[in-house]
Amino acid sequence: MSSPAIEILGLTKDYPVGFWRKRMRRSLDNLTLQVEEGEVFGFLGPNGAGKTTTLKLLMGLIFPTSGTARVFGRSIDDVAMRRDIGYLPEQPYFYDYLTARELLDYYARFSGLGAADRRARVEKNLERVGLAAVGKVQLRKFSKGMLQRVGIAQAILHDPKVLFLDEPMSGLDPVGRREVRDIILDLKRQGRTVFFSTHILSDAEMLCDRVAVLHSGKLQGMGAPNEIVSIELLGMEILFEAAAGRHLPAALLERATQTGARYRIEVPEADLYATLDQLKSSAARILSVTPVRPTLEDYFFRLVKGGPAPSYAVEVGAR
Amino acid sequence: MTTSSAMPAVVAINTFREAVRDRVLYNLIFFAFLMIGAAILVGQISIGIERLVIINLGLSAISLFGLVMAIFIGVGLVSKEIEKRTLYSLLAKPIRRWEFIAGKYAGLLLTLVVNTAVMTVGVILALCYIGRPYMPYDKEVLIAVYFILLSLALVTAIALFFSCFSSPMLSTLFTLGIYITGVFAEDIRGFGKITKNPAIEGLTKVVYYLVPNFHNFNAIATASHGQLIPLSLIWQNTLYAILYVAVVLLAASAVFSRRNLK
């Protein structure tokens, strides 16, 4: 049986705090999860949840208090394992005296690539992240978004099997975010495993096969985005237009919000047919009827505000 | 995979490139003007002792410029990379932390060697300007330069060591403190003997053996007076520097290998 792409086993990290550094603050608490080969896995959580700590532990930048992790069965302490991974740090910063081309060539040398191969890969990846035209410009002249693209290029340069991306959409404009999404989807098509942290939930919903939600260093839930958001039905949304010369019932108008000629109303599922009958009798034109479900965002905010995590999340997390 | 020996070389070349791009070697232009000016001035006012003045001035300047570079670049070698987070993406590559330390050290040493070599050429040109023929003891000047390089190698290793766990400002203070103590190491031990106090004598003895003895690396006066530098001193200084640097770099690697990069 083949090993999972990423296997995290009871990873815990405590930091000493205070003047004498005798008190310990737990940043990550007994995190256990697995990511299968070829999955796009979203790692969600608010600031301070422990996402970056987890990624730094996996990259060997910090050392765990307890627990361990493996990538394709090889310990994260094994330096050779890093040939198979690519990493984009949060808010990446690179040697600003180098040009984008020089920086990528520098990093490619650590992967043991030959000169011709390095040149070809550097050009290909600069093209891929939309920086081919500025390859000879020193990084000190780059914007935050451009640095983020350079960061992505260096992470994928050596064609790694597993990508660890810490907030890859951060600092990017809508076009840049779209491009990064496309890169992630492209990597998935190539069978690569992508593990990325984010608090842009729409990106996670759009891209991820599975997500894990982290809060205060603890895993709160894990599963497919639709498993987390689709169980609970909050109500039904009806979009409609009033017929010319006809008045809508006052009870409906009170609850509806109007945008131009259109009205939107949200009703409990049990009241759906009664409401539709009322609209029909007023000759209103029904444009759409959509179930209203909690989004990943709702789930996320409930956790952040300290509310109870939905029970299904715990169940999913227990898989 | 790139071999272990190649990893430090990749880091070293980039460290050297950083020094060049950050215009660190611009001090050479200042040094060139200093030597040209000194040669002209000395040629006019110090009849008979031009050689002594040029060599003293030139080698002292090489030593001082090198020391400033070794300390101020050395203390930022690791801490700057942590502070700017340039290290994060690098250490996620297949490179061990000791290879990074070795590479950073070699890179700064390469910068200092280039810097010192160019300045030495400046001194030789100044000597040529004053119209002095070649003398057999001129090789002592080159040996004095070699000793300066050895002492800079020591200072760089110490600065790099502190850079692995301390801020640049504290590292500068520590390195400078050790350098000054090392220059006066003989005097400190002598002072301990004079006090006749066993505790102070013991302490000064420990300091004497712990800090690098930079006094032995100063051959400027010997070279400028045309005296011979014994071969045994060359061997002794070379071995001492190699061993001391190796121990300090091992300590730096050990500290850095356990450091959490928050």
Helical segment count of chain B? 12
- The percentage helix of chain B is over 70%
Helix/strand/pairing class of chain A, anyone?
Answer: alpha/beta
Distance between the termini of chain A: 19 Å
Work out the count of structural domains of chain B.
1
SSE class of chain B: mainly alpha
Biggest beta-sheet profile of chain A = 6 strands, mixed
Most extensive interface: A-B, 33 and 27 residues
Rounded to an integer, what's the Rg of chain B over CA atoms? 20 Å
Oligomer: heterodimer
The number of distinct helices of chain A, counting runs of at least 4 residues, comes to 11
Structure in words:
The complex is a heterodimer of chains A (319) and B (262). Chain A has 319 residues and is of the alpha/beta class. Chain A has helices at 51-59, 100-110, 115-128, 144-156, 174-189, 201-207, 225-229, 250-255, 272-281, 296-304, 311-317; strands spanning 6-17, 23-35, 40-44, 66-71, 74-75, 85-88, 162-166, 193-198, 210-215, 218-223, 235-241, 257-259, 262-267, 285-292. Chain A is 34% helix and 28% strand. Chain A is globular and about 75 Å long. Chain B has one domain. Chain B has helices at 6-21, 27-45, 50-74, 79-83, 86-91, 97-129, 139-163, 168-183, 185-195, 198-210, 220-224, 231-257. The mean pLDDT of chain B is 90. At the A-B interface, strand 6, helix 2 and helix 4 of A face helix 1 and helix 5 of B.
